[in-house]
Amino acid sequence: MFENLSEKLDAAIKTLAGAKRLTEENVTDALREVRRALLDADVNFQTVKSFVEDVRKKALGQKVVAGVTAGQLMVKIINDELVELMGGEHKGIEMVPAGPTIIMMVGLQGSGKTTHSAKLANHFKTKGERPMLVAADVYRPAAIDQLKRLGENLDVPVFSLPGEYPVEIAEKAIFEAKRTGRNVVIIDTAGRLTVDEEMMREVANIKKAVRPSEILFVVDAMIGQDAVTTARAFHDRLSFDGVILTKLDGDTRGGAALSIRAVVETPIKFIGTGEKMDALEAFHPERMASRILGMGDVVSLVEKAQEQFSEEQAAKLEEKLRKNQFTLEDFYQQIQTIKKMGSVRDLLGMLPGMSKQLKGVDIEEDAFKQVEAIILSMTKQERNRPEIISGSRRKRIANGSGTKAQDVNRLLRQFDQMRRTMKKLTKGNMKAALKGMEMPAMPGGGMIGRKR
Q1: Which CATH class is domain 301-434?
Q2: pTM as predicted
Q3: Which ranges of 274-426 would DSSP assign to H, the alpha helix?
Q4: What's the pLDDT at 180?
Q5: Potential cystine with 383: which of 12, 67, 250, 329 (Cβ 3.0-4.6 Å)?
Q6: Using CA atoms, how far apart are residues 92 and 95, in angstroms rounded to an integer?
Q7: Which of 120-124, 163-167, 385-389, 424-428 shows the highest mean pLDDT?
Q8: Structure confidence by residue, pLDDT tens digits, 68-101
Q9: Nearest to 177 by CA among 101, 105, 126
Q10: One-character DSSP codes across 225-289
């Protein structure tokens, strides 16, 4: 996400390369490129104007201290302003102590409202809450069936009353939630292709009837400034509490994310980053600003890992690494866990500096496919004791996985090197561990990663 904007902002900051201090002249030159980058990213014109002026004022009032370049200082100023532009701090969903917490989902048809209602239910379920979905979109063909199917996959109940009006459905759903002990109610309301009076009247009536704890506006980030226009129309009528930006993983420009908060003065609370039910992230302005400026987002990466690894699993893994008992079977299981965390490009992009390194690298989203095929073509004994894999076994494994013997050799060599490296890391010998380190299955290096 934000690849084009990140690249152009980086180019703008590079105009300060070699400068020992910030002057009106070099700040003006840099901000000219920043303005162009933001406008190209489809950020609201008035928002761009205010942003650039705020950066200018702060930049000209700063002194460059020893050990800090003008470019580094400008990065700090732009980072701080981006954080402020996107809301300053994370705003989550406030739970109602007495319950249930009622969340009303609104937006245009096609914005991903139904899917993200289910994603939000999954988000609460993973946190130990007891969500219930409500199918109040009675107009779109198969909308109720879609929500029921998603709910069934998540083991989350879906309340629906075919033939009833949306307001009555919502009211009765609240009663049912209280009766069954559900403490989060997520109401999927109807959308239209465009904002119209009938739709606005209906969602306003539902709001009046159930008095939701939160109204979340769901909008497709790919539509750029149209997202801001639609958000303003909904906010004027409903005064919603937060925004869910969908399809942000496919938006390389980022104009909607940078504009909505400034225009409607309502926080972005979640972002959709993929099609899977767990591809929903809480929105943190400071982390997003860091990603935009190519500084990574290690905190989010760690949180993703914590969601997939229990403390018990981590302890067992550490023990195996320390005793040099980490096998290809274990490695295969770790690959499956990593795949659950999201796309390879997004995960690598969360590492500081990696977004620039990935420029021009065509990373396959199924980047581990070849490694998985090789490992699965081994017997259980071979996966647990790779040292027994002889030449004839390598040939059989290559034939079974549709690869070449050289590919099998490369994986075994890299795996052995990685295992020795990780053993050194568990002993605290970081310098020795990093020397010559080569990880199997890393995009851009070794056997996979770049499309051939």
Answers
A1: mainly alpha
A2: 0.67
A3: 285-292, 298-308, 311-322, 328-340, 344-349, 354-357, 369-376, 380-384, 391-401, 405-426
A4: 95
A5: 329
A6: 9
A7: 120-124
A8: 778 888 888 888 898 898 888 888 898 998 879 9
A9: 101
A10: HHHHHHHHHHHHHH--SEEEEE-GGG-SS-HHHHHHHHHH---EEEEE-SSSTT-EEE--HHHHH
Amino acid at 247: K
**Closest Cα partner for 27 from 49, 50, 58?**
58
pLDDT score for 166: 94
Q: Residue 366 has what DSSP assignment?
A: T
pLDDT at 198 over 90: no
CB-based contacts of 307: which residues, under 8 Å, 6+ apart? 126, 278, 341
Mean pLDDT of the chain: 81
Tokens of 399: 């034939």
Quick one: fold of 3-85? Four Helix Bundle (Hemerythrin (Met), subunit A) (1.20.120)
Given 3.40.50.1980, 3.40.50.720, 1.20.1530.20, 3.40.50.300, which CATH number is that of 101-284? 3.40.50.300
Task: Calculate mean pLDDT across residues 372-388.
Answer: 92
Amino acid at residue number 65: V
CA distances from 362 to 338, 341, 344, 358, 445 (A): 19, 20, 11, 8, 12
* Domain regions of the chain by residue span: 3-85, 101-284, 301-434
